[in-house]
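Shipment paperwork, digital attachment
Item: protein structure file
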Amino acid sequence: MSAIVQARRPKVSFVVPCYLLGHLLGECVESILSQTYGNLEVLIMDDCSPDDTARVGQSFADARVRYIRNHPNLGHLRNYNHGIDLARGEYIWLISADDRLRRPYVVEKYVSVMEAHPQVGYACCPGVDIVNGKENGVGKYSVQASRDMVFRGHEFLRRLLEGNCVVAASGMVRRSVYEALGKFPLDLPYAGDWYLWSLFALHYDVAYFAEAMVNYRKHERSMTSELMVAAVRRCIDDDLAVLWRIKQKAEEAGFGGMAKRCRQAIAYEYASHVAGTKYNVPGASITLEQCESSLHSLARNPAEERWIRSRLYVFLGERYFRQQNFSEAQAFYRRGLSQDPRMVKAWIKRGLMLTGSFGIGLRRRAFEFRRTAAARLAGDAKRECL
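Attachment content:
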């Protein structure tokens, strides 16, 4: 490493939180140090881990690596924020010790695009899962396009409102964005990253690389797995809180159209959790009564509550239709329209069902056509990103 690179302020800061992941830390750090772009630093954030993290963290003979051990344990979100506070780079890349970069040129590509597009708040790319030490394919949720592109922030946010599509290990954020909008909220242990990706996209553009250049490791000690097993209801509450907060931020910023998109996403999120279709985990659902209670407590006024409830009922009607439970589908369409009779598409869908087998068959064929087309596009994009 040249003296010039060591002396100057790093352009990129990697924050590597580590707790009980000492056996994987070396692989993660080496994937960073082997990058073709050298003006970077690595902050190993040891959250008072009782394993061999300290030994591994202090073993790197590279001036760019800084080992920091917390006393006492801060918890994962405070550890993230502590690392961001200590970072000196213009760009900050938070990557867990169990993840890694899978291409040596990824930082070089990221910095080049961020330097050329000052309106971009962060950059990301698809990720390849690692299961039992082996690559297991590209995470479909993380594939957003078949080519590199800069998304308008609100266009990318619309995708995020459907679910977190950013692999945490792939995100490099401009320091000024953290300074302007804040770091990880401590009351969102499961969905804090989803909230930040969404908040940042509300105000900044997003650079996307089609090639999958990071690995995300799936195992029982990953933060997502631990939270999902320990507190499924907390995960559900976090998901809903993200959308409610982004709606409020959009309203505060005067983005009325985006606030409406958020209300639509909130209705869909409630429906997903009532139906129990979002997570493949036993008990990962809420009752309709719990949903109603949450909606009543969080809606800004009765009109907003009715608007969201009407869409929630229609979304549940859609789910029952796909399950071929047509009587329940009809009931929920009717309940939705009673809350807001202006939903023209819901009237059409309900009307087609009332015609009997002809209308039901027509709807089913249209649904299958859309699903097949979407799967084909997703498959094409997935192949391109490798």
